[in-house]
Amino acid sequence: MPGTTIVVTSFYICPTNKKKVVLVGSSINERDQMLFISTDEGSSFQRQPIAFTPDTLVFHPKEEDKLLAYCKEGRLFASTDLGRKWTLLQERVTKDRVFWSVSGVDVDPDLVHMEMQDSSGGYLYVTCLIQNCSDKMVTAQFLGKIDYNSLLVQDDYIFVKVTTGNRTKHYVSYRRNEFVQMRFPKYALPKDVQIVSTDENQVFLALQEWYQSDTYNLYQSDPQGVYYSIVLENVRSTKQPEENVLIDILEVRGIKGVFLANQKIDGKVMTLITYNKGRDWEPLAPPTTDMNGKPISCKAPDCHLHLHLRWADNPYVSGTVHTKDSAPGLIMGAGNLGSKLVEYKEEMYITSDCGKTWRQVFEEEHHILYLDHGGVIVAIKDTSIPLKILKFSIDEGRTWTVHNFTSTSVFVDGLLSEPGDETLVMTVFGHISYRSDWELVKVDFRQSFPHQCTESDYDSWQLTDLQGEKCIMGQERSFRKRKDTAFCIKGKSYTSALTVKPCQCTEKDFTCDYGFERSHTEGDRCFADFWHDPDSPPEDCHLRQTYESTTGYRKVISNACEGGLNKQQSAKQHSCPLLPPRGLRVGIKGQMLAVAPGDDITFIVHQEQGDTSSTKYQVDLGDGVRAIYQNLTVTDEPIQHRYENPGVYKVTVKAENMAGHDEATMYIQVTAPLQEVHLEVVPIAGRNNEVNLTAIVLPTEANLTVLYWWIGDNLQPTLTLENSLLTRFPETGEISVTVQASNGRSMVQDTSTVQVYDNFQVIPLSFSRNLDHFNPNIPEWREDIGHVVTNILAKVTGVPQESLVTVVKPGLPTAADLYVLPLDSKPAKKSMFVDKIVQTINHSSSVYLCDSSSGYHGAADGPGVWALAVIFLISIIATGSFILFKFKRKLPGNRNVYAQMHNEKEQEMTSPVNHSEDTQHIIQGNHSGVVLSINSRDLHSYLTS
């Protein structure tokens, strides 16, 4: 696009065809995001507008025109024409957890593996085709939810993890078979797992165990990726921003089985190398001279070469160690000599024989690029200042030539080579200044070589380890290399491998099997761990099948030795016995034990040990539904059920065969969500007196509700299964009481306040039985009636309303307590004030004190020396009865409220002539009392005050 300045936010190069480049950004005068697509190494671009802002682009590993685009908000798009048209695949997808199909493993090349969030907030592993990835067409590949950011699809393997409580289980699927739990040593208890390598039918991973903080242990698996044995302890790790973890281990490309690792012990970091996939590790031998040819005093075992094994943040620079598949044996890295790795020292060292001998080449770190199968090594200093020179070597780093690649110094952003390992053309890209456009400088080394290499231009070298051993991974291998004096191009037809000769197997070709560890003090023998029984049959051992008991050794995977020693030869063949079922468990898909009526439930049965094919399983779902299954734990038909009614159901599974039986039980709560909880508590309490707290939970049929009681400022609640709690308040003042009710599916809360006093009085009140017919027994009604009585007493007696509190009690018959409170803060005056109020009530024209030995008592001081019985008789007119309820209705006409007290003399009282027969019946007899008459307007004002 001549004449157009592109503001680039990110760019991507097709891994299979580097001529295809996609830039993300915009033209300088445009705000909308654009893709700028090039099919000629960036010489020209086609502008393509897009309706979203991509955060990541992912090229298909085989089909170069297919792209996936991930947006920050979780949306995933797909394109089949190099970004010209896009289709929304899914939303709520996890970043960096999207994978194209793997050739040779997945059937359809258009399949996409992804981790996505479901409607409940959990995460699932699903797949779909890019042609149709709607919610209905998405297929869940793992039964149940997985941990966030845990999906990994790599070669033959798929990994997920599931955390329940404080335990995390890791699962693997080999070649898209069913997921199986990964088996680590029993007490490894992993905190984190990082996959290092999955090639050659084996998983190489780093596992951080429960006692580790900045190190990991390395483990290797069997071909299925299920059983793991330790190969190296305490490999250094570094936590990066965004919780990324870097493990100091590097797979050396070009020669299989070679790894570098930095081991950290007692704060000291050392670099180790293995040539047989972790079977043996050794420190790197130091060079004999420095870069100027002068002898070095560094001698083993006190001094070795140590390398930084960091990855580069920029994918277009090499990082601290550089290897390449097409340049076997060539390793170049930054590090130092000494007894340990030093962070600030980054001298450059090179080896051309896969780590046996090393040479120093630079005193500072450089970015490295291999051209023509390593025939040309390009180095540019890793620095923050602008550069105009590069260095290159055509003799594996023995000599270096300085080249001015530009006349103007450039801040180097990265190095690129043309497609193909044979290329001799590279590009340096960067900026002249921080605000300038990109500068791309192409460097062509083809003119430096006059002709194509012939066979006479090559020598051979044989791979050996640090001890000079030629048989590595069961083979003697020799490789072709160009002579130092040959100035020729290796070209496209070059192959590095020369000869391969199998070796006879020796002890070094075997490693410890699962459940065994090597004892270096007893001749490198493998001993069984204390928790492992090597003769026990495997979990999937069925009757009439055979199994082989392990000798404690297994051949290193990909080791090609033949004949000779066979450490597995003494393994014995056994017939699978009929084992009784053991470790039977029953659970629910999704791990929920509290469900709603009508929910569809899938029960899962798991059996840790014992034969399953000959075992009968009796299932009782607790609501009358029973069934019998054969081979239940491996059946493809799960147990599905639906409970219609609330309740607690006991689910039982009994497994039985001729050798024994086992039983598993679980309890499932079927309950609707809680709607409300109301806290019933007296508003007045005496210090250190026993107080009853009651919670009314709706719906009333809610089962197994747990109640949490918070009293005052105490952050530790009291838990009960009962809806009441007896407690005491040790301090006076205002105390807050909160109750939460939970049934596993929901939680509701209510709060009340209690005033705690040292001195107050309580007068019990009772009401006419007629009132019981209109008592709905709900908190609002009781609160309203309490207000009415308090207002009446305050009005009639002249006692301040703030000194009276009437609390109507729950239940029938309707009853209440009248609390008489002090107003003055001084204790002596409090007592005098309470007595004065009681005397006022006694001498009121509406209240008569009769029996001094009846029911009055002091709440704080125990039983009183005198008592007061107050009976409120609320008259009900048969033809127009009224209801005191939550809804405050006005009542037409006059109604009479009667307060009546018993008198020892039982004087006869004559009722008013205008009352109905019901009213007359209530007040007939030998009684002494007075009638308090209020009209409907007064009653309404009491109810609403």
From TrEMBL:
It is a single-pass type I membrane protein. InterPro entries: Ig-like_fold, PKD/Chitinase_dom, PKD_dom, PKD_dom_sf, Sortilin_C, Sortilin_N, VPS10, VPS10-sortilin. It is found in: Cell membrane; Cell projection, Dendrite; Cell projection, Dendritic spine; Cytoplasmic vesicle membrane. Keywords: Cell membrane, Cell projection, Cytoplasmic vesicle, Disulfide bond, Endosome, Glycoprotein, Membrane, Postsynaptic cell membrane, Repeat, Signal, Synapse, Synaptosome, Transmembrane, Transmembrane helix. One of its GO terms (cellular component) is recycling endosome membrane. Residues 607-677 form the PKD domain. Gene3D superfamilies: 2.10.70.80, 3.30.60.270, Immunoglobulins, YVTN repeat-like/Quinoprotein amine dehydrogenase. Its main location: membrane. Pfam families: PKD_4, Sortilin-Vps10, Sortilin_C. The chain crosses the membrane at residues 864-885. SUPFAM superfamilies: Oligoxyloglucan reducing end-specific cellobiohydrolase, PKD domain. Belongs to the VPS10-related sortilin family. SORCS subfamily. PANTHER family: SORTILIN RELATED, VPS10 DOMAIN-CONTAINING RECEPTOR SORCS2. This is VPS10 domain-containing receptor SorCS2.
